[in-house]
Each structure stands twice: as C-alpha cells, then as structure tokens.
Amino acid sequence: MSAADIVRGLYAITDPALTPGDTLLPACETALAAGLRLLQYRNKTAPAATRLHEARTLVALCARFNATLLINDDPQLARESGAAGVHIGQQDGGVARARALLGPDALIGVTCHGDIRLAQHAIAEGADYVAFGRFFPSHTKPQAPAAPLSVLEQARTLGVPVVAIGGVNPDNAPQLLTAGADAVAVIHGVFGQPDIAAAVRRFISLPC
Fold this sequence. Notes:
- The protein is α/β, with parallel strands linked by helices.
- The protein is built from ten helices and eight strands.
- The chain has helices spanning 3-6, 24-33, 48-64, 75-81, 95-102, 116-125, 150-155, 173-179, 188-191, 196-204, and strands at 9-13, 38-41, 68-72, 85-88, 107-111, 129-133, 162-165, 183-186.
- β2 (38-41), α3 and β3 form a beta-alpha-beta unit.
C-alpha cells in the first residue's frame, strides 16, 4: 500500500503514562479490534529490552488486524522490531539516515510543527508524510508551540499525506480534516479514554 492508503483517518499513538506495563497490549488490541489501522509505538522511558519486546509484540498484533505499526523517534528500534517505519522529530537524525537504515519500502514521517518550510525540506529528503501541530491544548505536550490551521491549508499542495496532532478529539477533528489533514494523530483521545473501543469508533466514523 502507498503512504496515502495508510496515513488517513485515525492515527493513534501510545503513551506509557496512559497504558503502563501490562496494560499496553490489551489497550492496543482493543483499539485495533475497534477498527484502528495505524498505530505508533511511543515510549521514551522504558529500558531498551522492554521497548524491543513491546515493539515486536505490537508488530505481530498489528499484523493480525492488517494494521500498520510505526515507531516513534527510533529508526534502529523500527529496524530491529520489524515495524513498517518510523516517525521522527527535527532532532532525530534526519530522513536520509532513517531511510539508509530502514530501506526504500519503510514509511517515514516527520514532525514539522507549524512550519511549511520544514515540511518541504523533509519531503525533499524523502519523507512519506509530514505532521503538523499542536492545534489544540495538549495533554501530552502542553508546552508545545501552537500551529495555525492555515498551515494545513498550505500543506494541501505538498503531495504527501498530512497529519494533524495536538489535543485532537472527535469534536475538533473535523475542522482539521476540512482544513487539509489526511489523518489526525491522537494519544489521550484514544488511550486516555475509559472506553477505548468507543473512542476509536467515534474517530473512524468521521468523514476523511
């Protein structure tokens, strides 16, 4: 499948504070069973062995549901775990390094904050999709600088899928999709909810 086929609709991201320890895999399975098809494993604090075990387990779990797993910030972990690709920030070594490590078929996304020029640079380096945000107050990164909705309108011409992140919920997601986002990346709006399956179903029912 192409990046456009994969990066669309709901893009859920794990957080160890919301699904600690043994709750991670059941939470992800619940989300996948409810219809989630794009998942990012994000854990910056666990020991390397734990992260590798969890990533490999999530790769297998996603395969059961015909879903895609990406790894946050760590191309080496993506390679070792067999994940489909990686999402990197501006300080994570660049697209060229990730591509050299993961190969031509890996899916690579880049955080571009609110700056269309960062997105253009990432795409020139070979990024498959770009992400902008935050657009609303965020539980995960409350101090992150805000991005204007206009950047999503500008991004329509970039030629790759566009992801919006930051405080996204089912009520505000439609304005992001209308502005130009192909997908909405969600952490607390899925894994911070008392009914994960219901949260996923609300998101995937939105037109995109």
